[in-house]
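Reproducibility note. Readers wishing to regenerate the assembly model reported in the main text can use the exact inputs given here. Chain order matters: entities are listed in the order in which they were concatenated for prediction.
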Amino acid sequence: MFRGVRLEEYREMLLYLFRENKRFLLAFIVFASILLLGLFGPIFYTRDPFAMAYKEQLPPSLEYPLGTDRFGRDILAQLLYGIKTSLYIGFIVAVISITIGTILGAIAGFFGGFVDTIIDNLTNMMLTIPSGLILIIITSYIPNRTVELLAVVMSIFLWPGYARGVRGMVSSIAQSEYVMLARASGQRSISILIRDVLPNMAPFIIVNFASFIGSGIWMETGLSFLGLGALRSISLGSLLYWAGTLDAIRRGLYWMFIPPGVIITATISSIQVIAVSLESVFNPRLREVGVAEV
Amino acid sequence: MNIGKRLLALIITYWITITIIFILPRLIPQNPAWRYLENLYRQYALYPETLRAYELRLLREYGVGMPLWWQYMDFLVRMFQGDLGTSITFYPAKVVEIFLKALPWTLVLLIPVTLLSWTTGTLVGAYVGYKRGSKVDKLFVGLSYVLSNIPSYWLALLMIFTFAFTLKLFPSGGGLSPGVIPSLTTTFIFDFLRHYTLPFITLYIVMTPGWAGSMRALISTQLESDYVNYLRAMGVEDRIIYKYALRYAIIPQLTSLGIAMGGIVMGNLFVETVFSYPGVGYFLAAALGSLDYPLIQGFFVLVVAVVFATNFIVDLIRLIIDPRARA
Amino acid sequence: MKPLIKARDLRAYYYITVRGRERSIRAVDGVSIDIYEDEVLGVIGESGSGKSTLADVIMMNIRPPLRLISGKILFYDEKGELELSAMTYKYLRDNIFGKKISMAPQYAMSALPPAHKVWKIAEDIFTSHGVQLPKEEIIKILQEKFESLGLPPAITDRYPFELSGGMRQRVVLAMSTLLKPKLLIADEIIAALDVATAKQVIETMKLLKKQKHVTSIMMISHDVPAVVEIADRIAIMYAGKIIEVSSAKEIVEDAKHPYSKMLLESIVTIESKRKQLRWVPGDMPDLSNPPPGCRFHPRCPFAMDICKKEEPPSMETREGHYVSCWLYVKR
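Running the prediction on these inputs yields the following structure tokens for the assembly.
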């Protein structure tokens, strides 16, 4: 179905990664654990994260493994729920950014023209303006902050840079022989794009997808900490927000703010390691091969 | 000329950005004080005589009820006069006033910490880049993956918890203890430093890995280039080759420093908020929380202007240092 | 003729790990060659024949993933005989590289640090070999040398990025011969140049030799006419082995090996009497998995049974003319 790509090759590279790259293995285990916690945690640990009780500010115990906050809510329940929310947001951000970026970048790289100019100018703008600041300001102006809406806003800052990368790759693949051949033999452009160009970019897309999940989580946790996160939703960032507003530090309620931060750091660093390791395997550096001209 | 075109593009981008930030809140105003003003305006439209003098002044000051283009023009005219409006949360303080009061705090904190983290980071990165592949290098890479992903606000919380709450070595926040006045006395200096230390350390830990990582990459790239291979094959000493590599690697690193300097004026929202450190970031965060549009807008206008100006200057400096850029 | 370099049975392989499997690329696989004083030795071969690796190996510029498996290189100068292949990398860098044997690499476009002035680079080369000279002296030496090579003396104060490709190439040649090495190895230096510039570079090399900036030159290229123009002797390389060596005249007029003949016939020159372009069908063998016996047998129109099984030895058909082909082995 896909021309010019051998799937067995990719599988071999992945196996190699798991065997040889210890850092990747570690990161994979960490991320997989967090993922499992987020997906299946609430199923096994059924206490309602939103339920308030009179058991306030309790330190960790058998009944409440991670203690409670000032409203008597179970911290562990909140944490599990927060993991799920944060991962979900990261995933949505990645999906939106990659979709828009790939489509527009491919159009720009293959056809050039109008779309190309827009992407170019947009990326330049994004590079000059302090996007962090604008993100925060725009988010604060939104009245009805839902998870999905926030994800859309965050994607705005991710897709242009990625689209530029896509455009570059597509444009150079489009100059290659078999694409020229396909075009000359009358194949429709879209068909060429999907069947010849994109599969060669699969590694690039995957690596960026992973990286964007991390970016999404990073942005979302920051926003939530400032109180600009999704309303009525618990995420890892909002846990820290509550720790701040409920004065957890000064009251010594360490179980409220240490776990969320650990999970955030672990999630984002493990995803980053995964993305970088994947990239190093899919783009074998030529110097390792050592044969430029024999 | 190149410079002229770049300057023009910069000005246009600046214009577009502040216009967007200006229009957005006026499309969906959420600030309760704003709604109060809107109600006031409606009252004025129907029964002008029922409004008191100060209420009229409020309306004039915030331009509520006037058409968008009027407000925009008003905003621009005032901007050129150096008036960026009056804050809502800190009424009646003017936005520019608040900014100028907060700026020194931010600068005093961020300039030294940026310079220090850049210097140590660059040195570490250069060393590790030279020893690429060694145990030191692998250790560094592993560490920086974790360190660079620690949220600054979380680290700040941990700092306060450990050093202020548990060990009681430092105060838990603020710029100064209540009652201490800025003066050249040891009490003031000592008190200031006590409040300064934790935010400084937090920022230092957060910033350094980034600089080290980028320098490592830059040096590695240089050490793999053709000229290094040639010089080696010509018997040139490692010491001298390394100097060449450093010279080429440091240019992008310096450029990044320049740009970071521009960003300093934003302060660091997260760290300043957690430590209640009265810098630009702290007030901006407060303004975001209470949707103080004039303050948000005014700060944004100022900050972006500084960032753009610094970027432009950095570009100019690069033209001078790197002979290749003049080509 | 006095020998400068004697290389015997050199084998140098690249070892690479591709997805967990270690593979060896046998770039130089049993090469023996002599280089004499005051000569230009041309080494001709297609891409993938191992000639660039040979360039590195002859001067012992061997770094991972390249490894010298076996073989010996002897170097001769006023001090006597030196076994290069037994020296440490450090010794080679301090005493040989740039001083006794120099390389002009194929990446000359980027061989010079782009944003450092030409005289500064020369100064560092001098300093590294213990020659301390004041700046004015260095500039004078450079200017004189450039002038004698037909280059504008003003370029001593220029940056490499300001110079054209051909100029950079010639500056590299000048740099590599600053310390008057015995041997200059020119590795594909005209490959990226247009015909006119290439001619200039060849002329520069001739001048360098004539003006005694260098004693001998080993010129490696796939550009046969250019090599023929300057070389005294020519060696032809195929799949990691040297299959024929003789004087330039003999190679051109009376090449023996089937590959040499096909290679030479494929060249279109103004002087050639053939109007057709004949190419050598087939591809260079994969050096990580070379064919058994004579490496050329899959493409050779005269292949016999024995060619597929055993490697031919090197036979001297006429004085100084060596061929490795079963066709010329007398039984």
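We highlight two features of this model. The two ends of chain A are 35 Å apart (CA to CA). Chain A touches chain C through twelve residues (CB under 8 Å).
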